[in-house]
Every structure is written in structure tokens, then in C-alpha cells.
Amino acid sequence: MKKLFFLILLLAGCAVCLQAQNPKQPSWLSDAVFYQIYPSSYQDSDGNGIGDIPGIISRLDYIQSIGVTAIWLNPVYVSGWTDGGYDVIDFYRVDKRFGTNSDLVELIRQAHARGIKVVMDLVAGHSSDQSEWFLQSKEAPDLRYSDYYIWPSFKPEGGQNPAQGGSLDDAVRNNASASLLSKFVATDAPRGPYYIKNFFDTQPALNFGFANPDPGHPWEQTVDAPGPMAMRRELKNIISFWMDKGVDGFRVDMASSLVKNDPDKSATIKLWKDDLMKWFGSEYPEGVLIAEWFNPAQSVAQAGFDLDFFCHDGQYNYSSLFFYGRRGFGPNATVTMPYFDEAGAGGLKTWYDLYTYQYDAVKGNGYVCMPTGNHDFNRVCTEGRTNPEELKVAMTFFLTMPGVPFIYYGDEIGLKQNPAAPSTDGSGFRAGCRIPMLWDASANAGFSTAPIEKIYIPQDPDPNRMTVEKAEADQNSLLHYVRGLLQLRKEFPALGADASWKLVSSLDQPYPMVYERTRGGERCWVVLNPSAKAVTVTLPAETAKPELIGGNYKKCNYRQTRKGDVISISGVSAAIYKF
Ligand code: GLC
């Protein structure tokens, strides 16, 4: 009897320590794996060359088979299509290129039936200049939507405009961080002479007020002025409209952009934390809010988002791991080699310092997520890194780090960046990562039955291109490897979102990188060697030798010696150990 009592106590203890760390987050989040779909590029169902919602529905079985549990859709709202759907004309209606609101509800129904959540993109900071709100606001100052936008009566002197190049690509790169003054757009609208934009000129900023309004600038309203308060009510309406149709939450586009002249983001944080988050949490406790903020220490730890990204943009990014010397994302674009490269000439320190700062700041409050890619930067499978074994090493990293994994559609088969893709729907260089999915050997790789010249963005013409069909048939493919990794994550809580993380190897010897994940008494080590050469590392002695539970290694050897524990691993290899 006594024994049974202790057993129950022990099991209850385990259940408590395995629970999601943050009680405020949706119960499903800690086990979630997201799959991001750029809807124009996934599957065309009506033969016009552009992907749509019925197309996505037809691929749900495949999506489920990968092992993902949630889909994030880039914007599907009625759009002017000058920025890939991020210039929204009608926030309450699905664009006809994708189908209807009913199609979206059907997608949600069918996804839910497979245990898959559906998350939309919420463009909170701006609309299209073609939206009914803006068209009305630009006419006069006393109409219903007049104060949804900001109308400076003059352009203040001073303030440094950041160097803006002339091309669309430069505009994309510089826009998010540009100063407010550079966001003044001259207009001959009756309400002119200026409005404030958020990103492109076609994306006027919505008016959530100013952090410290300048009395000399009459257009700068306080955050609690009637206009900005009406704007917040509209935002809540949009959220409720879709949540009440069954959506499971939102990825919030440029979430840090709402309050203007807010350099330390304190007013924007307050707006989210004290109003929107409180409201959302009580209305939709099982809904998720994902920030595009690129600073989890602010968005997650302070504003209350469930998670935020750590990828290519902002001060906190993983560019040194994947892009240095190739595409030049991030502040140190002069460094010539990324870490994940066969050359084995990269380093870990830049990334480590940025990542650990964020990881420590959010611990227990939500997640720092490192997506495999997204619609704004280069795919992991890009020039110089197309070997499937290299991609397996990178995927091992993405899918065994803390936080919730995000797989960008196609990365599971090694869909390759197309650097020559022509700018489409305002993408600039981003077209290269928004290429249509490659499914099979039929015309246009099964993406669409349209004539090839109508395909949304040209597909890889290489006859040897990887497709889902080929990947399914090859047991050694990246796709099967990714499935295996997701299975491991499920089986071993130490590889999951909440398990703790620490680097075991030294920053001075970056190849191989060895990190430890621990949860509820379970302990795993992940060993990554992206370099082409076999490498050996000596680590402090462990009491027992661990067991190999995963990886793509050709050879991996663990020896306990008098000097410590020695791991030798072949080139371009990953290994996962469990103690
Ligand atoms: C976000 C989106 C990007 C878009 C921009 C403006 O960064 O990810 O695609 O262009 O916001 O909405």
C-alpha cells in the first residue's frame, strides 16, 4: 500500500515537472511543430498557376505525415499584392486568389480533424493604401476611419534618414528598421501633404498613437486618444472574427511597430501586455500569439507573446550560422563563412552570445524559435549548401534546439533557393525562397496544371530536382530523416521545447558543436559537425557512456579515456546521444 502511495506521488511529481513551463500558454504549444505555408506557392487547385486554399486542403495528409502539428499561413486576406499579401485591403475576407472564407473554414475543419492547428498572419501595423479605411481617411479628418492613419502636416527638420539604396531589394532590407522620418510619404491626397507608412509606400501605418507626442506635431496622438483606441478595437474585432471561425491564433507581423517614436519599445510592450494580451488570454486561452519582433526578451518576456523568432533580421539573428558570406544578412556580412558549411571555417561565438542572451531572458515564459527558413530570407538549401547530408545536419540543429520548431514548406525535402527568381508581388529577392512546391514528376512538378509560363514563380528546371514523390521513395532522403527527428522529439522529452539547453563543447573549437538537453531526469547530447572533415572533441568525463539514438553520421565513436570523454565524428554528420 505504502509502495503504491509513493509510486503515485512519484508519477504525479513527474507529471508536474513535464508540464508546460508557462501556465499562460496554450496547452498544445509545448508539443507543437509548425509548418509555414506561403499559400500562393503550395498547391494550385484551379489551374491558374497560383496556389490556393483548396490546394492546401488536398495536401493535408502529406502535411500530417511529416509529423507537424500546426500550420502558419502567410496572409490570405484580400490584398493589393504589392507585398506578398502584407498589404491588406480587407482584413475580414479571404482573397479570391485563394478561395473564400468558407474554404478557410473548411481547411480549419479538415486540419483539426487531423490534429493540426491553423494559425493566420495578423498584419497589425498597416493596411493597403487601397483599403476602404485608407481611402476614407485620406479624404477628410472627421470621418469614421479618419484617425486610423497618421497625417503629418509638415515634415520636421533633422533626424537622420538611413542610407536607402534605390532597388526593391534594398528597400526590403532597410525598411523594418528605418527611422520614422524616412517613413513620411508625400501625397497629394486631400488629407496630405504626408502620411506615415510602415513598410512600402503602399502600406500606410495604422494609428496606435505615439509614445511621447510632440506638442509641436499635432498629428502625434497619445496611445489612448480616441483614434488609436478605435484602432485597437478594430484589431480585436479582426482577431475575434477569425478566432470565432476556429483559427488557433496568429503570427503577428511587425508586432513591435505599433506605437511610433518608441525607441525602447516600452509603449508598444505596454499596449500588448496591458491590453491586447490580457484580452486575448481571457477570451481565447487556447489561442497562440506569435511575435514577429526578433527580440524575445521584449516580445515574450515583457509583452507576453508565447514565442518570437530568432532568424535573419534585427540585432538578434542566426545569420553567422547560415548566411555570412553568402547573402549578407546580419551585421557581420563581411565574415566569409557561415558555420553550417562544409568548409568548416565558421564560428559559433557570434550566434552563441546573441542566442544565450535571448534564451536566458525568456526561460519559462515562452519560446525563442529558430525557424528553418521563412518567406523573407534565403532557404537553408541554397548555393553552396545543397548536399542532402549537409541539410540533415542543419535540420538536426533546428529540430533539437529548445523552443517550438518551425519548418518552412519545402525545407523538409530540400527545396532549393532560386536566386534568379523574378520579383513577384513585391517580393524583391524574396521570390527566391517563395518558389512553388515540388510534388512529383507530372507537369510543373504537380504544383499546377497551368501552362508553365503562368506558374507563380518559376520552378527549379533541373530534371534531377528533388520532389516529395522522390523523397518518399528513398529511405535515405531528407524527408524521412526529418520525420525521424520529429519522432525522436516526441519520444524524448529532453529534445522538446521546454527541456533546458547548454553548450557542452567549447566556443574555441566550434567543430563539432555539442550541446546538452535535459528534462525531468532525461539527458541528451546533440553532436553536430557540418564541416567536411572528421573531427574529434574531448569533453569532461561522464560517469556512463551514452547510447546513440539518432543522426546521419557515417561514423561516430564515443570513448571514455583518462583525459576525458572523446567523441569522434565523420564529416557532415550529426549524432544524438541519450545518457
Ligand atoms: C514582415 C513580413 C514581410 C513583410 C513585412 C511588411 O516582415 O514577414 O514579408 O514584407 O512584414 O508587412
Helix content: 25-40%
Q: Which topology of the domain at 132-227 does CATH recognise?
A: Oligo-1,6-glucosidase, domain 2
What is the residue-averaged pLDDT?
Answer: 93
Alpha-carbon distance between the two ends: 32 Å
The biggest sheet, with number of strands, parallel, antiparallel or mixed sense and barrel status, is: 8 strands, parallel
Instruction: Work out the strand percent.
Output: 15-25%
CATH homologous superfamily identity of the domain at 132-227:
Oligo-1,6-glucosidase, Domain 2
| Computed structural class | alpha/beta
Side-by-side strand order of the widest sheet = 11-10-9-8-5-2-1-12
**Quaternary:** single chain
Number of strands: 20
Low-confidence stretches: 9-20
Number of helices: 14
What does this molecule look like?
The chain is an alpha/beta fold and 579 residues long. Among the domains are: 132-227, Oligo-1,6-glucosidase, domain 2 (Alpha-Beta Complex); 499-578, Immunoglobulin-like (Sandwich), CATH 2.60.40.1180. It has helices at residues 2-18, 53-58, 60-66, 101-113, 132-137, 168-175, 226-243, 266-283, 296-299, 319-322, 349-362, 388-400, 468-473, 478-491, and strands spanning 34-37, 70-73, 77-79, 88-94, 117-123, 184-186, 194-196, 249-253, 288-291, 307-309, 367-369, 406-408, 500-503, 513-519, 522-529, 535-539, 547-551, 556-561, 564-569, 573-578. Helix 8 links the parallel strand 8 (249-253) and strand 9. The relative contact order is 0.10. The structure holds alpha-D-glucopyranose. Residues 83-84, 86, 123, 176, 199, 253-254, 292, 375-376 line the site of alpha-D-glucopyranose. Residues 83-84, 86, 123, 176, 199, 253-254, 292, 375-376 line the site of alpha-D-glucopyranose (GLC).
